[in-house]
Amino acid sequence: MVTGSCKGNWCPVEEGHVTGWVHSHFIAMVSPALYCVAGVAPGDILNLRAYPSAQSRVLTKLDRHQCGIAFLPYAVGGWQKIRANGWEGWASRRYLSGQ
Questions:
Q1: Pick from 31, 35, 34, 40: which is nearest to 95 by CA?
Q2: What is the rounded CA–CA span in Å between residue 52 and residue 42?
Q3: What pLDDT, on the 0 to 100 scale, is given for residue 31?
Q4: CA distance linking residue 56 with residue 24, whole number of Å
Q5: Domain spans in the chain, listed from the N-terminal domain onward
């Protein structure tokens, strides 16, 4: 995530708890963090997966009321690549909605 103004082609970034500088050529556009988990049953969670597949490894679990989710510019079938809580992974698009 870009955290401030770029200086020339270099931009200050943060990834999880690590900060540094990245050349702007390597920065991809993401949506504002305006999405939330939606439609998940009480007592259940939404799995954030490593790949766009229900059989893929679970990276982390998102609460059924999680918001502040950013869409990354990748989608496959019914899967959307997202960024949430410092994690990047894939979630079923049917469980994500705008705020």
A1: 40
A2: 24
A3: 59
A4: 31
A5: 1-29, 31-98
CA–centroid distance for 95 within its chain: 13
CATH code linked to domain 31-98: 2.30.30.40
- The token duo for 41 is 């049953």
Phi, psi for 84 (deg, rounded to 5): -150, 135
Question: Could you give the CA distance from residue 41 to residue 37 in angstroms, rounded to a whole number?
Answer: 11
pTM: 0.69
d(Cα 73, Cα 52) in Å, to the nearest integer?
14
Burial of 84 (0-12, 13-18, 19+ CB in 10 A): buried
Please tell me whether residue 20 adopts helix, strand or coil conformation.
strand
